[in-house]
Amino acid sequence: MATAILYPQFSAGFPSTNFRVGGDAALYQFLQTQPKDTLIATLSDEANNIPTFAQRSVLFGRKCSLPFHLGYYRQVRQRILDVIQAQYSPDLTLAKQVIKQYHITFWLIERSTFTPQYLTDANWLESFQPAFSTALTNLQQGKVPALEKLTNCSALTTDRFTLLDATCIATTLKSPA
Hints:
Elements: H1 2-10, H2 25-32, E1 39-42, H3 50-53, E2 57-58, H4 70-88, H5 92-102, E3 106-110, H6 116-121, H7 131-140, E4 154-157, E5 161-165, H8 166-171
Parallel strand pairs: 1-2, 1-3
Antiparallel strand pairs: 3-5, 4-5
């Protein structure tokens, strides 16, 4: 009985709430001003926080992509493959197709997204072959992804992120030079 009463006073980690802290308040505030049916595509781990802190939907999130049910996972896996291919393609056509297919409103890009290091650090993406290997090879060969060039489609820029407006991407006539 005494142990139960005294334990909290001697434990630095008590109580262990395991709360998560959001990574970008400006991003959440901006997204909260958008319509409720807003859908964000991103490969960033920030996708795990957006539904909680911005109350907006994401196309998928790493924490929601676990293969507990095969039917569900097939759909999520296809979404991830589509986003990897579109995000790292030098041809803007793939991004336009993904935006149209999934009705994406915004595309969230981290500052370091278009570096080989970003992909190799995001080891959870390695299982999404062949899209992962193709994207990594393209970056290593110096091929510039079309989305990287679309700075004119930025709806919001923070220290860590650029939020691209999907309507702007979809209406861009061709891949920027």
